[in-house]
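Hey team,

Filing this mostly as a record. A colleague (T.K.) asked me to run one chain through the structure pipeline before their review meeting, and I want the input and output archived in the tracker in case anyone asks later how it was produced. No errors, nothing strange. Just documentation.

Input sequence:
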Amino acid sequence: MTRLRIISRTTCLCGVAALATVVLAACGSPKPIGLSSVTGSGGSGSGSGYHLTGVTTSTKTNTTTSSGTTPSDVDGGNCGITKNGLTAGADILLVLDKTGSLTRAMDSANECPTGSTTCQQRWATLVSGLNAVLSSASSSVLWGLELFNSDGSCGVDPPEVQMGPGAAVQAYIVNVTPAGSTPTKLAIQTAVTYLQTLTDTNGKFILLATDGEPNCGSGKGGGAGATDVPATVTAIGNAFTAGFQTYVIGVGTETGNLDNFAIAGNTTNYYPATSPDQLTAALNSIVGTVASCTFGLGRRPPDPNNIVIEFNGDHSLRPPQDTTHANGWDYTSPADNTVQVFGPWCDNVTNGTYTTTEVLMGCVGGGVIP
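Output structure:
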């Protein structure tokens, strides 16, 4: 898996903004970033990009324009420029269903017979698949683990494993025994509360793996047996608004409601897993996407509509913003602090064609990049 380094240039037209240190200083009246249209391509697809006139390409990191450099040398006489080196990466919180139905077979609703060597039990398969993915995942990915339930009924505790290397998750899950009810709504709400405490610049995601319908209608302390699908969809939608996409893996055969969950989490559809191979493929696909094609910006841009993304320091390699997620880039949530690239652009990240990315941000009132 190829790791990209982002050189993030915050070009301010009304102040100097440091992406990491964040210091704003007033200056003259706003003026648009100097642009000239070009046509670029993302692998087999095409996109439009824009030259930023007067901006010097550099891979130097964590430096600010020196006092000996005049503003006109940088951005047409308006503001300075800050360059920060960032590494593409992701924080993935595994939110795993460990309810009693996880003792059933992957390919049916039947229990695996005691002592069977041929029946693929859901929980055992999930643990095996996670071990394989965690062992081979890029070091740029950090992992946390939250299990639901946590009390044999409808309770959910804060994550059992805090965000860090995947080995800690592997060590924990081998000793878990599935039992109890399915408080999915509370699990998502608890996950959001935890993710909001993290301060690193990685993109942050929820990976929900479940095998059925939420059945804790009134949340912690009761309600076992009461369906809770609408409230769970709302909780996942609220997580997305807060800045956290939810990827959904449906383990087993009773997964009819899960597309609603994925749509609410802005990930389009759930990943079905009725066999060990399907489960491993789903995990690898999700991890590969968020680890290689998603970039945390560290904070919300001064003007989310006034940024450009450039690969390999080449002005012709600037994907357009594409809210259809087919061939370009887009924010991963309304928080506007993480971007993801799609289609051939993502393909060229993962296959190593693109090795560096620059994100250039304009100031509020500095003119919208077309």
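Quick notes for T.K.: The chain has two domains: 5-87+296-361, 90-292. Residues 5-87+296-361 form one domain.
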